[in-house]
Amino acid sequence: MSQTLRCAIIEDEPLAQELLEKYVRRISSLELVATFDDAIAAFEQLPDFRPDVIFLDINMPEMTGMEFLRAYPALHPAVILTTANPNHAIEGFDLGVTDYLLKPITFERFMKAIGRVRERLNPDTGVKTATVEHVATTPPLPPDVPNEFIYLKTDKKLEQIRFDEIVFAESMGDYLKVFLTDRFLVTHLTMTKLEANLPADLFLRINRSYIVQLSHIKTLEGNTVITSTGHELIIGSNYRDTVRERIRKWLVV
Question: For the whole model, what pTM was predicted?
Fold first, then answer.
């Protein structure tokens, strides 16, 4: 049986609030512990309810959802944004949200968001969900020119990213957070599509949520990979043998 997730809703629109409450109650493994129509009240009272996941509206009076996220302690529960404006998604992922739901919210999309919460809480038991893939294509190159880069769509522009710049990529729902040697960017793309466009000899999938460039794996400790940028990434149980086999090729004993 799936672990019960304690849910809290912060939403000032009555119809949207009622719909989220209805969706939560339809799933036996979810428990609704609190509903707020005021972000300030939620900020003060929410810790007492110990939620595992928060459904957070962005456009609220007095304190917006983004202001709530910035002010809330860093170790907050999983957050799913609810918004009528998809442009808020990138800013939300910068603040560590798990997913966003675009209004009007369908039950199917709600279920996908819950699956992503479970996958993030426990990557090895997460639920795979089908997504519509938005393809970032690389312009064709002459046959004698090696393809050493891809183009990613970021904030209404196409940006050329060299393979050697990429440290690792993290799945964030319908988006990817791509960590480079000096910065990170967010792009609307699936992990499957990105992996298909990266050279397999340079990159290694270590988890449903992570793909890492081999040259940036500086430490392998237990089931954790530490990158050159200091990020600690968990190796999924289904990927451990593959990771160790690839690393073993360079092992000097």
Answer: 0.53
